[in-house]
Design brief:
single chain; mainly alpha
Length: 255
């Protein structure tokens, strides 16, 4: 198949329709966009449609491109992802992009769910209580990242030297990473993509590339995820993410 035929095939899988031809005010731009994303990028690398769509909605949530997010939530459903998997992908953005942007993404997601007659709220996915947040968060965090954050920020004023690492453990790893609905491997891969899409978070990208590989992601899968995210976040952020983790990814490819 050439890329026009591949675009048609992928578009039908994701959206159940045909790609743009001469409709709208900017048909030429839409042909460039669709043929590049759906005729080229979607066919390079090992990741399947489900993983690629979770990557896509992650980047769209980070960048607050909400009309496109709604469309790709629909695509997630079309390729067989469950509403819970979609919700968990959006929810786990909160520690990285903040609550207001995550709430915007949740609202867009729920609009699509409502259009698809999906009953809300979805079932609870929490696995922690107020009494177990730290213990369970640490059980997720420590095998991957050890005491890296606590060690790095010992120089903070005493109250913050204790609170900042504790917030990371309880808020990021307990409140979100420990939830049901997505496995650890998927969550870590999406976190790498999320940090790359943010821009300016290369220290954290590098750290989470290491973490993603520890929980089973291959170097090829990480590169594929970043490459798939590129049309939605731009080439500079792809290159920044690849450059900051080059030695880690090269070493992983040689194993």
């Amino acid at each position: 198949m050439d890329r026009i035929e591949r675009t048609r095939e992928k578009f039908k899988q994701l959206f159940g329709g045909e790609p743009a031809k001469n409709e709208g005010t900017d048909p030429e731009f839409m042909r460039i966009l669709q043929r590049f994303i759906f005729g080229e990028v979607c066919y390079v690398g090992s990741l399947d449609n489900c993983m690629r769509e979770l990557i896509t909605i992650t980047v769209l949530a980070v960048n607050q491109t909400l009309p496109q997010l709604k469309a790709h939530v629909g695509a997630c459903l079309n390729v067989g992802l469950s509403p819970v998997e979609i919700r968990e992908t959006i929810y786990q953005c909160a520690p990285f992009i903040g609550f207001p942007k995550t709430l915007n993404a949740i609202a867009a997601m729920n609009e699509t769910f409502a259009e698809k007659k999906i009953s809300l709220p979805l079932e609870d996915a929490a696995t922690v209580t107020e009494d177990t947040r730290y213990e369970k968060g640490l059980a997720v965090q420590a095998p991957i990242y050890g005491t890296e954050i606590a060690d790095r920020y010992v120089w903070l004023p005493e109250e913050f030297a204790e609170s900042v690492p504790k917030w990371l453990t309880e808020f990021c790893f307990a409140d979100f990473s420990s939830r049901k609905g997505l496995d650890e491997k998927t969550r870590e891969l999406l976190t790498v993509v999320m940090l790359a899409a943010l821009g300016g978070a290369e220290v954290q990208v590098r750290s989470h590339v290491v973490g993603a590989m520890k929980v089973g992601n291959t170097a090829e899968e990480i590169v594929c995820a970043l490459a798939h995210a590129m049309p939605y976040m731009g080439i500079p952020r792809l290159f920044n993410a690849l450059n900051c983790s080059k030695d880690i990814l090269e070493k992983g490819e040689k194993k």
